[in-house]
Specification:
This protein is about 45% helix and about 20% strand. It contains 13 helices and eleven strands. A hairpin with a 2-residue loop joins strand 7 and strand 8.
Length: about 375
């Protein structure tokens, strides 16, 4: 079964997100309409060994010439150094504005290759072929590209929409269980933002997706992309409603930064799960939602094998976490901003978070 979700709206050129099984074998035919010249396939060394041969074989069968460019795996590749090395490789290949970049990998590759595409000769086309669940449901859709700095995650980037996204459910079978669960956190997040019925399904029969059930994964990816595409179509540059997609991320990014973006200690999706649970508990503590709702959200993340408490991932200082949160991209005029909730499916942006209340909450959560 193959499902297409259209992403369009605002000032960007619309594109399709294709969700299906064994799409790598069809990639050449699907990418061909966007390929006017050569193709640079950007991947990390681990993903390239698993999936680049199938992708390049498909491209060749469609008469498309491709070159493989690899970077080391891991969040560390979202850096100025790796961006510079990647740009140098692309220049060395002699790519011009007619050529195409294909990002084959997870969120790190999509962000890095997408930013390179945005910068190369002031912008060339690119296609996303996400190989992790997290990338399929979140980072490959919407045009956000970025690298990290020592001061924070995704602080240097650009909006650059892909021409096509190919989400192959089959490649998810090669992922370790931890990576599937990490992506599942972003799936749950979409239900929490604006679709209570979807969350109910994820908490019930759909929960098998966290263990790799193919049918559940297909439905979860499609619905997540539908939710994200609608929000992106309304607010491409995150001037308003798109900020809701950051539910859990302000807490999560601060925790990731304090851990030095060490994926062994805490994967990004795990940070999102923890951040969402914290956002619901903070909302409950502020009288915005029923504490029983926050308990249910924590239970659903926990049942999926995801962290929900600070004590599960390390020891943190209140001041250090608040400093990290104050450096978040959503901060405006020095005011702390959080995505909070009035219940499942009812997230909203709070742009004037009281720092003392937040500090008290973090101490209650176990930060020192």
């Amino acid at each position: 079964m193959t499902t297409m979700v259209r992403v369009e709206g605002g000032d960007f050129t619309g594109y399709d997100v294709v969700v299906g099984h064994s799409l790598l074998a069809e990639a050449g035919a699907r990418i061909a309409p966007f390929a006017r010249g050569r193709i640079a396939v950007v991947s990390d060394e681990t993903v390239a060994a698993l999936h680049a041969p199938a992708l390049q074989t498909s491209l060749a069968a469609a008469g498309l010439k491709s070159e493989l460019v690899t970077v080391p795996p891991g969040e560390g590749s979202k850096s100025f150094g790796e961006l510079e090395r990647l740009m140098d490789r692309l220049i060395g290949l002699g790519l011009d504005r007619r050529d195409l970049i294909v990002a084959l990998g997870g969120g790190v590759i999509g962000d890095l290759a997408g930013l390179a595409a945005a910068l190369y000769m002031r912008g060339i086309d690119f296609v996303q072929v996400p190989t992790t669940l997290l990338a399929q449901v979140d980072s490959s859709v919407g045009g956000k590209t970025a690298i990290d700095t020592p001061r924070g995650k995704n602080l240097v980037g650009a909006f650059h929409q892909p021409r096509l996204v190919l989400a192959d459910i089959a490649v998810l079978a090669t992922l370790p269980g931890r990576q599937v669960r990490s992506g599942w956190a972003e799936v749950i997040k979409h239900g929490l933002i604006c679709d209570a019925a979807f969350f109910d399904w994820l908490a019930g029969e759909g929960a098998v997706g966290a263990q790799g059930d193919v049918e559940a994964l297909h439905r979860a990816v499609v619905r997540s992309v539908e939710i994200k595409s609608r929000i992106v179509g309304e607010d491409e540059k995150e001037a308003g409603r798109r900020a809701l997609l950051n539910l859990g991320h302000t807490f999560g990014h601060a925790i990731e930064a304090e851990l030095g973006f060490d994926e062994e200690a805490l994967a990004h999706g795990e940070a999102v799960a923890l951040g969402c649970a914290m956002a619901f508990r903070y909302s409950a503590g502020q009288g915005l939602c029923d504490p029983a709702v926050a308990d249910r959200v924590e239970a659903v993340f926990g049942a999926a094998g995801l962290p929900t408490r600070l004590s599960q991932v390390g020891r943190f200082e209140v001041g250090a976490l608040i400093d990290r949160m104050a450096g978040d991209k959503k901060v405006e005029g020095g005011r702390l901003t959080l995505i909070l909730t009035r219940g499942i499916g009812h997230a909203f942006v709070e742009k004037s978070v009281d720092e003392e209340a937040l500090a008290g909450f973090l101490r209650h959560e176990g930060a020192g």
